[in-house]
Specification:
Oligomer: single chain
CATH class of the largest domain: Alpha Beta
Largest sheet: 5 strands, antiparallel
Number of strands: 19
CATH architecture of the largest domain: 2-Layer Sandwich
Structural class: alpha+beta
Number of helices: 7
Strand content: 25-35%
Radius of gyration: 20 Å
Strand order of the largest sheet: 6-7-13-11-12
CATH topology of the largest domain: Uridine Diphospho-n-acetylenolpyruvylglucosamine Reductase, domain 3
Number of domains: 3
Distance between the termini: 27 Å
Length: 321
């Protein structure tokens, strides 16, 4: 029995048959809708389950990648040699390893008196924003249209329309890849533009506490709706993509640099620079990850040649290309 198969058997005993799969296509879990199979794909529902999963994989010497909603990932066509672990609301067991942790790693709760939204790392960022709206708490409106998880948003300090996670996150509970639990303040997370301490010291976000302000439910709802309309008008939401492909260069906008370089609509196979918003690289339907990566490389090269500005990709590469 190989290490992968032995680990899969042990993990099925912990989580149940349906939450551990072998040779799982990553295209089904990444918003580009491209990518080959992961050796193992594991869904952990609670901190206790996650702790057991990480310790099992560590003991087996199997590489681990923690996947949120897959909205900022380009998975290679060759797949991932190791275990991709994601956080879910599914659970087989009650109880946690220690401390006051969320019921599941995808749960969202509201402390109205303290104006705190607490969300598990696997919760959708939109769910947290809508829970805030329903409780008349303002400050997360910018996040309602970002299609990622809380964990991914914290790691990347996700933002849009002038808002970002560092403005609201006050405490984060983490689990190291060795299964140890840590707690950090918002300041200790070292948030920067599309970065945090988790970019250099990887760990799993168990949950985040976000402090908001009093607001009018009607005004919050209208702001969310307005930003949604603006997003739909300006972004190619009808195509698979990872959102903005490049970080914003200081003093510039990536989309304008790409457009000024004459690259709007430029394509390699079914990977294309969006004609609606040049900052988005899209899958027109049958792109491969290799085509998307080649397009990223070409756009980066041509923009540097035309403008002298070096674009830095926001998208994370995973696995074998």
């Amino acid at each position: 029995m190989t290490g992968i198969k032995m680990a899969a058997a042990e993990l099925r005993a912990i989580l149940g048959e349906g939450r551990v799969t072998e040779n799982e296509p990553l295209a089904a879990h990444c918003s580009f809708r491209t990518g080959g199979p992961a050796d193992l794909f594991v869904r952990a529902g609670t901190a206790g389950e996650l702790q057991k999963v990480l310790r099992c994989l560590n003991e087996a010497g199997i590489p681990v990648f923690l996947l949120g909603k897959g909205t900022n990932i380009l998975a290679g066509d060759g797949g991932y040699r190791g275990a991709v672990v994601t956080l879910s609301g599914e659970t087989r067991e009650a109880g946690e390893p220690e401390g006051d942790l969320p019921d599941t790693l995808a749960s969202v709760s509201v402390d109205r008196e303290r104006r705190i939204i607490r969300a598990g790392g696997g919760a959708a960022l939109r769910d947290a924003a809508l829970a805030a709206r329903d409780s008349s708490l303002a400050g997360l409106e910018f996040a309602a249209g970002i299609p990622g998880s809380i964990g991914g948003a914290v790691m990347m300090n996700a933002g849009a329309y002038g808002g970002e996670m560092k403005q609201v996150v006050r405490r984060v509970r983490l689990m190291t890849y060795e299964g140890e639990i840590e707690e950090k303040s918002g300041e200790e997370m070292a948030f920067g533009y599309r970065t945090s301490i988790l970019k250099t010291a990887p760990a799993v976000v168990l949950d985040a506490q976000m402090e908001l302000t009093e607001g009018s439910r009607e005004e919050i709802a209208e702001q969310i709706a307005r930003l949604g309309r603006e997003r739909a008008q300006k972004q190619p939401l009808e195509f698979a993509s990872a959102g903005s492909t490049f970080k914003r260069p200081e003093g510039y906008f990536a989309g304008k640099l790409i457009m000024d370089a004459g690259l709007k609509g430029y394509r390699i196979g079914d990977a294309q620079v969006s004609e609606k918003h040049a900052g988005f690289l899209i899958n027109r339907g049958n792109a491969t990850s290799a085509q998307v990566r080649a397009l990223i490389d070409e756009v980066t090269r041509i923009v540097l040649e035309k403008s002298g500005v070096a674009l830095e990709r926001e998208v994370i590469y995973l696995g074998e290309f």
